[in-house]
Design a protein that fits this description.
The structure holds 2 protein chains of 2 kinds. Chain A is an alpha/beta fold. Chain A has helices at 40-47, 73-76, 93-100, 108-118, 120-124, 135-147, 165-180, 192-198, 216-221, 223-228; strands spanning 2-11, 14-24, 29-33, 55-60, 63-64, 78-81, 153-157, 184-189, 201-206, 209-215. Chain A has a 6-stranded mixed sheet, sandwiched between helices. A 4-stranded antiparallel sheet of chain A has the order 2-1-4-5, with helices on one face. In chain A, helix 3 packs parallel to helix 6 (135-147). Chain A is globular and about 45 Å long. The relative contact order of chain A is 0.18. Chain B is an all-alpha fold. Chain B has 10 helices and 2 strands, in the order H-H-H-H-E-E-H-H-H-H-H-H. Chain B has helices at residues 2-37, 44-61, 66-89, 97-119, 142-164, 166-174, 188-210, 221-235, 240-260, 263-280, and strands at residues 133-135, 138-140. In chain B, strands 1-2 form a two-stranded antiparallel sheet. In chain B, a hairpin with a 2-residue loop joins strand 1 and strand 2. In chain B, helix 1 (2-37) packs antiparallel against helix 7 and helix 2 packs parallel to helix 4 (97-119). The model of chain B has no long low-confidence stretch (mean pLDDT 91). Classes of the chains: A alpha/beta, B mainly alpha. The A-B interface holds A 48-50, 69-75, 79-80, 82, 86, 88-91, 95, 98-100, 102-103, 105, 145, 149 and B 166, 169-170, 172-173, 176-177, 180-188.
Chain lengths: 232, 288
Amino acid sequence: MLAVRNVTAGYGDFNALFDVTLDVRAGEAVAVIGPNGAGKTTLLRLISKLIQPRRGELTFDGASLAPVPAHAVVARGIAHVPENRRLFPRLTAEENLRMGAYTSRSEYAQRLEQVYALFPRLKERRAQAAGTLSGGEQQMCAIARALMSRPKLLLLDEPSAGLAPVVVQSIFELVRRICAEGYTVLIVEQNIRQVLKVVERAYLLEAGRIVRSGRAADLMAAPEIQKAYLGL
Amino acid sequence: MSDIFDIYLLEAVLNGLLLGGLLALLSLGLNLVFGVIDVVWICYAELIMCGMYAVYYLYVQYHWPLALAMLAAIGVVALLGWLLHQFVIRPVLNAEPINQLLVTGGVLFFLQAAATLAFGIEFKNLGVSLPSVRLGEMSFSGARLVAFGTALAGVIALWLFLRKTYLGTAIRAISQDRAIMPLMGVNPARIFAITSALGGAFAGLAACLLVLQYDVHPAIGLSFGPITFLICVLGGLGNMLGGFVAAFVFAQFIAVGGFFFAVEWGYVIAFVFFIAVMFWRPRGILGK
């Protein structure tokens, strides 16, 4: 579904990704793991076309993403939950969801119902300013906003960052349910132990390069990952 | 004796209310543009001046029906707002705020000079006078009543637009987080262009109401440009509700202050109030 081929990208004079190749197949849940500053967020920003590749190719559903401007990516079927959630703090929770449906207005009422079924808490908080929601609720709202466009591919950037441990558990449970609902998910995480339990495959990104990839269970069992990232 | 005193005071308060409606409408477009694009159109009142000339020429010279001339003027100023954004604001969108002020300040003098060249310096009058309305002992200018009603309708229409439509929600959202708008499928450049045209349309609407009350001349912007700007600052720049409240507060100072002293004193008191508020709440009455 998504193919990233030998992509190099970065900001200004600085490259953050080098020769990255990665695939996500329909129905899969895939993680990109790695330390802080490895280029994980840059990778998602690249797929959303918020930054342009310097070299290499991006294709989605068989069509190149090269000529697609950032604001047309959602309509192609890719929704992005950005780092730090980035809700519109002074819009209500429901208005944030409406923004998520900006390109799919005719389905708004139906999608709203489906998303509220998945996140009943948001329905209770619908009229509340998003900035006043708790951290966990904000993360739910950010994910729900992305789901409003009925994406073929959902990009999640560190959904567990900055949340209390007990809330982290519930967010990963939610991600698991979203994967179970049949969404294709590409998730970027530092919380490697948790994320590897949710996804089927993972890539290890270090200093802008993919250094390892494979089934989640195999990565979890790999001695160097256990030593470097899992503290075993 | 005290009866007469009260009814004149009441008249002053009500006239202040009417003036407040007009000032609220004046501040609306400027606040909208600043709130969304984060750039102050110093030349806002000059856009209004252009709108007043548009009404004047279409109605007096070309004998269009007044309503049609006014609609066309709103369209003309909306177009000017869009042009201002595309050709003047866009190139300095990421520049220092002082540079943005200077370019729109340059447009102010450009429009004034261009209007002097094109239309001459004489005062032009529409020649329309609406009858004043008497209510018991009190009398109210018909033009001000119309302006008040239109201003209120404009405020409500804008509020509903910003609350109830996708485009309006996007306009509010973009002022809160410009960078992620593309992730919503929104093209920020398009929202900015639409907002600028909308800000222009409100300047055009204000022009239609002002031209009913005042003669138009190339420097007329200077007589209500500063007050419009002060009201926006008083309410908290970019805060439309704040601007709305500030317009009515400011107008009461002018009207009631003018009632107790002389009309000029009304303005003096209002500006002293403004300076006091700037010490007390530098970000405006409702500023955050």
